[in-house]
Structures are given as structure tokens and as C-alpha cells.
Amino acid sequence: MEAPGAALQERRDGQVRPPGLLGLGGGGDVVRRPAGGEHGDAARAAAEGRSVSRSPRARGPAPAEPVPARVVIERVQPEIDGGHFPIKRTVGERVVVTADIHGDGHDALAAVLRYRRAGEPGWEEVRMEEVGNDRWRGAFAVSTLDRYEYTLQAWVDRFGSWRRDLGKKVEAGQDVSVELLVGADLVRQAGKRASAADAERLEEWAKALRAAPDGDPTAAARRVLIGELAALVDRYPDRRSAVAYDKVLAVVVDREKARFSTWYEMFPRSCAPEPGRHGTFRDCEARLPYVAAMGFDVLYFPPIHPISRTHRKGKNNAPIASPDDVGSPWAIGSDEGGHTTVHPQLGTLEDFRRLLAKAHEAGIEIALDLAFQCSPDHPYVKEHPEWFRWRPDGSIQHAENPPKKYQDIYPLDFETEDWRALWEELFRVVRFWITQGVRIFRVDNPHTKPFAFWEWLIGEVRREAPEVIFLSEAFTRPKVMYRLAKVGFTQSYTYFAWRNTKWELQEYFTELTQTEVREYFRPNLWPNTPDILTEYLQVGGRPAFMARLVLAATLGANYGIYGPAFELFEDRPLTPGREEYLDAEKYEIRHWDLDRRDSLREFIARVNRIRRENPALQSDGGLRFHPVDNGHLIAYSKATDDLENVLLVAVNLDPYHTQSGWVELHAEALGVDPRQPYQVHDLLTDARYIWHGTRNYLELNPLAVPAHILRVRHRVRTERGLNSFL
């Protein structure tokens, strides 16, 4: 059966009319005829050949009906899930909006991008421009830590149509006397919408156009085409036919560190300078210069709370602990307290606040682990047994990932009938740490808690402290990871650790940076974590750690490492084929020799300095892969929008052998003229090369430096650039 809006509707007199006039079909952009009313009754009576009496109030000409819209707005981007979720930006970034905007016939169109901070009554506007094939583009900048809204409006541009056609007729040598009179009417109408000063100027133009046929119409027309009139009329467009997009879309604006951050993870209890002693917050203070010297600006701690005695895990995740075993920090809670208490061996809450202040002085923010789970000894177990899932044998369900069992952890039951009190308590926990000065949280396994909970919690936190950053540690299915980002997580862990081949890296980062995912999902790249020692790192030695560091630090604006295991290239798995570390720091205190001569700390510092000095690496945009005729070599560029800062990165993915090949460069992505020589400066080794054209040679020895980070300089400096040469 044909859709109601697809056919013309037949009237009783045999005539037909378009369905939009009847309120059928036509889409959301159509202005529909009001139903019923005396005017509608009169129309129906006339169609049926009968008369209808009018009340005295209705005598006189019938009111004009709204004309159905002629302009269509569709395929607006960015728009996430029909506008249900906001896109993400940081302060100072632009929001570039594109849309298909078109209409019938040949009239010119005009469109504006409207934006405002959420809650403001009025809109700011920027004119959009057509970029081809009825695709329009506009942009605005977000300047405050807030939530913004944007939408679109478009209309038939009658003055623009007239001016365009006038130009064609002048070029063809046609008489334009009548056209100038038409233009005079359009200008006079604009004057009625204008301010007093502009109205006066527009009236002068209207008079000149009306008088032009008596003089030199062609000369007058040329003045219209090159003069101020177009800009003046554009200030006061005729929007009677304007169509508004049927959605108001949202932007969440975060602070800069949401876009660009460099993370270092360490266990505070392993920070004591001498072996065998439990580290303290004061020991962490002494470690700050070491972390800062490597160029990290976020120091992330695993949970710092009391640890359960019941079912405590021993070394290497042994199910039975010895009396001296310290247990897993993720088994949160004991008689000393729960999620708002610090482990007594680490120090006091006052010590923690002092550490926050010292870190701030060093240019570092402390990030806390937010693990919403409990040990068997957590106060919640006694105070709120209804918040846990009970088994038929009277025991509480512990955490499992079959066949793995975590007897020292009780998951919270988010389907409890007392769910609202549970939510409020967890919000209180986050608020508590915010009041202590914490502004960054790494959230453990958020995919095991409801999406609705996170959307509510993060929304509540943002209302009070919009500068707070939430990093989602969810190694799960892609759609679940993306949904967590949509509901509010600022940054997200990724599959980067397991993307090792050139094809895998190119496919994955194309998805992250070239699709709509980039609008809401901010990747944070980690080559290792306390739970993840990949096979590549296990077998690749020092070159593998160097290569993965360069990939993480240059493919992503946000990245992190778990140290000191990373810079000391810890590569011993628990057993062959497993990704867990042998003697994992999750279950014991480790003493690290930070002064080892083969440490990667200097190399890490150099890479992080390159990141700080090059804006192209401070955003996930501007990524472009370049073909290399060797499968072990990957090449890609990062560039700022204005191409003032362009870096070309090449990495040898083979940790054992020297690899060479020819890279075919996309010259436009680098901003170079392939007909002219240009310089590339290796920021890792300080070597400089003169390249020509788009095809150039690469050779990388993993035993030396397995990567290039090349700064592209668009022209070669010679003595001709010196003033004395001129």
C-alpha cells in the first residue's frame, strides 16, 4: 500500500493537491495547515458546493495560511544517535557542523548555525557556507567549561537569488531595469527589519535602485554586485520561510587535560626507598621529581583504601595468603573503613592532601582508582547486606570471570530494591574525594555496572564540578565501550595493547579518528597495565617497549604507562601464554631499581617533551596513514588544522631486525610542495634529512632507535633567507 504522503490527495471536486497541505507526509520541515477552524470549514464547504455563514468577527479577508516549507535540512553531523547523546570538546576547540541543505527550484539558500550555552535564552549565530553538492558547513568555538547546544536554520534567500541572477543578466548584456525595481522592493523590506542607522542606509539604496532605470541601469547593477549592499541586507534576512532543524544537539565541554594528558601509574606501597618496607604518601612525595622529569602530568594510584583480611590473596594471586602478604588493593574494605578511608600504612588523610599539594607544585595531578566493589570485610557488608547478591547457601556471591574466581571481592548488586540509596552512597564517595582535591578518577570495570547509573552519577558530578575527568577502564565489547563514552566518561581505555600489526593499527585508529566515534570517544592508550603484559612485550625486549611507547605517545593525545615496570621493561609472565606478570605488584610490594643504566626513563622523557612542544600531538585529529612497501614499517602523520605543525612518524614493528622501505607520502597532509625540496628533522635523534617528492626512503634499526618522529619543515633554509644576502 502506498504511504499516505506519497500520493496526491483527491478532493471531492476531482482536483488534487499535495499531501503536505493536508498535514500528511512532508517530514518535520513542512509547515502544516491548521486542522479545523472556520477557515477550514469554509474551504470544505466551497469544495462541496455549499455556503457557510461567518460570524461578524470573521468577516473580511481570510488570514493567510503559512506557506509549506521549501527547504530541507538533513544528515546533520555531528549528531550522536539522533541527538540523544552529546558530542565532546575541550575549552577553546571548535565545533564544525555540516548538513545537507537543499530545496526545490533554483533559488539561492541561506543557513545559519545557532549555538548557545545550555540554559541561555538567546542564540548566537554564524552563517554557514555551501561546500558543494548541497553540503553546508559552519563552525563555532566553545570557550567555557560548560554544556553547549546547537541547531540549524535555513531559508530561501530571495535577495541572494536576485543578486545572483542580476549578475548573470549583466554579464549577458540584458536590460536590467525591471530587475533593479524588484531589488529596490527587496532592499526596502530589509530596511523594515533593520536598526535605525542601517534602515536609513538601506532606504538610500532602495531609492537609488528605483531611480536607476532613468539613468544607467547596467552601471547601477554593477555597483550592487561589488558594493556594500549585499553585506548590509544579509544582516537582516527575510526568514518568513525559515525552517528550523527539529533537534537541538548538545556539546559537553571539558578542560584541556581531557584532550591531552600523559599518565603514569604506580603503586604507592612500592615507593619506599628501601626494600621490604610498605611505602607511604611521604615516600610518594619523594618520587614526584622522578615522575615529573619523565614528563608525566597525571600520576594514577590503584585503590588507596584498607584491604580485606578475609580471603586475602597471596603472591601471584595465590588463594591462600601468608601472614605477611599485603593482598590486592582492589579488595577494598576492612575494620578500618571503606571507600572514604585511606590505608593506615600509607598514612593519613592529611598526608594525602599534602601529597596532592606537592604534586600540584610539580605540575602533576593525582588520579584515584574508583572501584565500586567490596571485600568481605567492608563496612557495607554489615551495614547494607541488601546491596549484595546472596546465594542459596547463605553466602554472598563473590566476583567471577569463569574459570577465574575472586573470593576477596564482592560485587555490588545494582538490581537491589534499595538501589536508590546505593546510588546516593556511591555519589557521596566521589564527592568526598572531590572535596579532598581529587579531580581525576580512573574507574575500574565500569561495564559491570548499569549505564543508567553512570549517566546519572557523572551528570551529578559535572553539575557540581565540571572539571572532573573520568577514565573508563572497560576492556569489553566495542559497543559497550562506546556506550560508556556516550553516557559521560571523559576518556576510555582501548584495544591498543593488542593491536600489533600495521593492518591492525591502521584499521583501529581509522575507526577511532575518522568515524563519528571521534565525536564522543576519547582514547587513552596504554601499552601495559598491572593486569596486561602482552606477548609482544614479553618477547620483544627493549626495542618492543620503545616502539610501543612511540606508538602510544604519537597515535594518541592521551596515553599512559604502568611503571616502573615499563621503563625497566619488565617482561616475565606468570606462565607462558598468560598476560599476567610474574611477581605481580597487584599482590606484593616490589622494590624497583630506578637508577638502572638501561632504563628507558631518558627515552620516555624525550618522547614526552616532543609531545609538549608539538601541538599536532595534543589532539587525536589530523591523523593520516601513509603507505610503506614493507609490512613491518608503519608511517603516519599528525598535523594541526593550519599545517603549521606537522609531524611524520615511522615505526619499525619488528623488534628483532632492521627494516627498510619506501614511503609514499600524501603531500597535502604534510603541507609540502612535492616539486620543491623540504626538510625533515628527527626529534628523537636530532638528525636532519632533505627529502624530495612524495616517495622517500626509510630504514630503522630496532637495536638503536626503532622509530622516527620527524618534524616536517615546508621549505629548506638557505643563505638566501639571510638579510645580508638580499
Task: Describe the structure concisely for a colleague.
The chain is an alpha/beta fold.
The CA-CA distance between the termini, in Å, is 80 Å
In the CATH scheme, the class of one domain would be Mainly Beta
- Largest β sheet strand count, sense and barrel closure: 8 strands, parallel
Detail the poorly predicted runs: 1-58, 722-726
C-alpha geometry? globular
Number of strands: 32
CATH superfamily of one domain: Immunoglobulins
Structural class label: alpha/beta
Helix content: 25-40%
Q: How much is the average pLDDT?
A: 91
List the quaternary state of the chains.
Answer: single chain
Q: Can you name the CATH architecture of one domain?
A: Sandwich
Strand content: 15-25%
Q: What is CATH's topology name of one domain? A: Immunoglobulin-like
In DSSP terms (H or I, runs of 4 or more residues), the helix count works out at: 16
How much is the radius of gyration in Å?
Answer: 33 Å
Give the strand order, joined by hyphens, for the main sheet.
Answer: 22-21-20-15-14-13-24-23
